[in-house]
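FAQ

Q: What does a record look like?
A: Structure on top, sequence underneath. For example:
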């Protein structure tokens, strides 16, 4: 049976998601933070009619969706919930389950990596936490990237980051040089036990100088001190070198799917 998330089914969904954060990343953290009836998110699930076990969970946010499939029951109904969606994020197992039911334009494959909370990191001094009037500049930097600009609009992203910052849910770190922000990373999702890092970007004129490694280490150490594991996903081998050097190791395959 396919349902919108509600009080009657949320506990089963949260339990299923909590067993595999490396497969769903944002879904669990956003559900716990914002609930199932917020303005920006829509949550759907399929559950077994007999035992109530969860088959899949779908979270929609503007034109993107996050999906995790636990088994193939009722996956053919997922496209009916994708109206207005142009990009789906999911792991490769979920993609295998829905591939034949959606019109895929392009798929970009990457990895999910984990840094355990007890992995020691030596942290440099230069990166710092963001201040509230810097989000528009950060958003412009993020959206200047060809890949990140496909899923973000500067004004919308800035508004979202400001809202998360006000709730202590999206915490950003920056490096400034020559009077401007040249490097950034943020927590894009948080729960009591883990954090998903995202928005890792360095201005093109300042790449190859170790800024990204420095700022990622700073953010990781910050959240480790709160007793949290860290996840992130990546698509480019150049990025993987930074993360693996920091101590992350790959735990899953990840996909960005463009559909029509």
């Amino acid at each position: 049976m396919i349902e919108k998330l509600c009080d009657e089914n949320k506990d089963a969904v949260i339990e299923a998601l909590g067993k595999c954060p490396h497969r769903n990343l944002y879904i669990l953290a956003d559900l716990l933070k914002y609930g199932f009836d917020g303005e920006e998110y829509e949550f759907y699930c399929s559950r077994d009619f007999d035992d109530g076990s969860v088959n899949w969970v779908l979270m929609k946010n503007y034109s993107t969706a996050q999906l995790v499939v636990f088994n193939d029951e009722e996956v053919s109904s997922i496209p009916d919930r994708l109206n207005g969606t142009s990009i789906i994020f999911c792991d490769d197992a979920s993609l295998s389950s829905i591939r034949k039911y959606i019109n895929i334009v392009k798929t970009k494959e990457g990895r999910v990596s984990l840094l355990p909370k007890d992995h020691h990191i030596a942290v440099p001094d230069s990166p710092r936490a963001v201040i509230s009037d810097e989000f528009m500049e950060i958003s412009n930097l993020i959206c200047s990237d060809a890949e990140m600009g496909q899923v973000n609009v500067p004004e919308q992203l800035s508004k979202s980051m400001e809202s998360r910052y006000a709730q202590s849910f999206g915490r950003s770190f920056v490096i400034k040089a020559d009077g401007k922000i040249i490097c950034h990373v943020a927590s894009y999702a948080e729960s009591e036990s883990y954090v998903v890092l995202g928005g890792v970007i360095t201005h093109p004129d300042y790449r190859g100088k170790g800024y990204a490694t420095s700022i990622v280490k700073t953010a990781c150490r910050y959240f480790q001190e709160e007793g949290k594991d860290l996840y992130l996903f990546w698509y480019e081998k150049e990025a993987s070198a930074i993360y693996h050097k920091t101590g992350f190791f790959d735990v899953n395959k990840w996909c960005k799917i463009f559909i029509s």
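Q: Is there anything notable about this one?
A: The longest helix spans residues 211-224.
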